[in-house]
Amino acid sequence: MSNRILERRKRQFLGEDFKLESWDLVKPFYENLKTREINSKEEFVKWLRDRSELESYLSENMAWRYIKMTCDTSDQENQKAYQFFVEEISPNTAVYSDELNKKSLALAERYNLSGEGYDIMLRGLRKSVEIFREANIELDTKIQLKQTEYQGITGGMTVEIDGEEVTMPKAGTFLQAVKRSTRAEAWLKISERRYSEKDKLDVIFNELRDLRHQEALNADFKNFRDYMFAAMGRFDYTPADCFAFHEAVAETVVPIVNEMTTERKEKLGLGELKPWDLKVDAEGRSALKPFQNGKELLDKTEVCFEKIDLKLSEYIKIMREMGHFDVESRKGKAPGGYNYPLEEIGVPFIFMNATDSVRDLVTMVHEGGHAIHSFEVRNLPINAFRNPTMEVAELASMSMELISMEHWDTFFENEKDLKRAKIEHLEDILAALPWIATVDKFQHWIYENPTHTEDERKSAWMQINGAFSDTVTDWSGFEHFREYSWQRQLHIYEVPFYYIEYGMAQLGAISVWRNYKKDPKAGLDGYLAALKLGYTKTIKEIYEAAGIKFDFSKAYIAELMDFVKGELAALKA
């Protein structure tokens, strides 16, 4: 066996030969935890670790079912295997989890476990107990199955370009074509293909909205937004803070995006800047191709990470040797990209839809940042410690985008291409912040108005989207596509309210990058110190460990935007 293939943790509670074949095989372990007598602090800690082992096993089992399903959405056996877990395992574990949470809290009253992350874990358990309702178990199952319908529709989308049937990610590369008619044709085909499914996707979303609203009512919340803030453990900020973030982005970032878009229009020499003109190089150069195929992408990522720190490169090598990558786009593959933590082995899986673009490079180093995080928390003793809140998880990924950018000469030997790639990425960051605010604000509206009609939703989307969009791009004649552009954002369907974290973490990532540029060693040390904490501290404390602030005020955003503008100016000089 290669020394790069890591062993999973030994199963002391479950036993080495345990295999998940039915709920009846799992139930005795939950019964053991439920009924076991605890007579000392040491026994309580052992009980917590046994529970962690069981939950880690089930988490990883579920992970592989999800991974296989998304790698091939057309495989019915993969669908059935995933559905088995969702329908047979998850509903049963939910009831026991609530009982074990209550037992944990009662034992914590008797045996003090303050510090070492237990206080963070216990506050999360208190909130889980507070909002748990047995009536929501069935609703959760329906929601998860409904989400797979969205994956099936979007994962099966293809279009024909130049006589070839291509996936949507592959079709997206044609939007960088120098020839305007080529990118216009690609944009129209992509938009028409998505539009053709709008009614099905609307029906799916209506059902999801109604199920989610009922969950909230069952748990005695006014709306699903307030329920999700509790369910996601958002202890460190409120909806009001999100609204302040939206306002700050509108006032500090959107004007910069308007300037960028005006400059693009002028450089392209166009009377009207259309939606298909937003990805092409403004100076008429062919799209950058940082790699040719999946293997080269991984090869170069290894080298890039090695330039940052040898340990980071080793993480990628371990994942490759263990077969924990699926990076190339193909028909039948679910859209998007993710790093899926694997709780038992501690070596995550990266899934993405790469073609050969700079955007794909960014996705790789983004998911690579998540992977680094998984390795850094691998040896924390309790699964709750290894699963930080998303505001921290996305700090890991988005910071790595920018830290790695200092070593993108691995992907671009030509200095002009390197500068161009950096400019593209920084401009994408500036453009992404308004989109993040758009998606988040839209979700607040959706669940604050749970009985809305499809026409009202369309109107709200257009109003919110318009407030965060540039005023230069001409959509005339294609407004009907824009009205449904929210449907391409899988988070709205699959992980509601998980989006503003990208904005908060992006601000943190810019600060991490600023520190790294000043002092690479100190900047990297701070970044890794924050990651090692997992979820044993508050968000604010974890950010402070990285040497940055958890702050999304207008003043702080303006300060960071000035820094990014300065970096862009230096690259363009």
Q: Which key terms come to mind for this protein?
A:
globular, single chain, about 575 residues, 23 helices, mainly alpha, two-stranded antiparallel sheet
Quick overview of this protein structure:
By secondary structure, the protein is mostly helical. The chain has helices at residues 23-35, 41-71, 76-110, 118-131, 135-155, 168-172, 180-195, 198-218, 224-231, 239-252, 254-268, 294-308, 310-321, 358-376, 390-405, 415-448, 454-468, 479-482, 490-494, 500-518, 520-532, 539-545, 554-572, and strands at 158-161, 164-167, 325-328, 338-340, 349-354. The strands form 2 sheets. A 3-stranded mixed beta sheet has the order 3-5-4, with helices on both faces. Strands 1-2 form a two-stranded antiparallel ribbon.
Write the layout of secondary structure elements.
Blueprint: H1 23-35, H2 41-71, H3 76-110, H4 118-131, H5 135-155, E1 158-161, E2 164-167, H6 168-172, H7 180-195, H8 198-218, H9 224-231, H10 239-252, H11 254-268, H12 294-308, H13 310-321, E3 325-328, E4 338-340, E5 349-354, H14 358-376, H15 390-405, H16 415-448, H17 454-468, H18 479-482, H19 490-494, H20 500-518, H21 520-532, H22 539-545, H23 554-572
Parallel strand pairs: 3-5
Antiparallel strand pairs: 1-2, 4-5
Helix pairs in contact: 1-3, 2-3, 3-4, 3-5, 5-8, 8-9, 10-16, 10-23, 11-16, 12-13, 14-15, 15-20, 16-17, 16-20, 16-23, 20-21, 20-23, 21-22
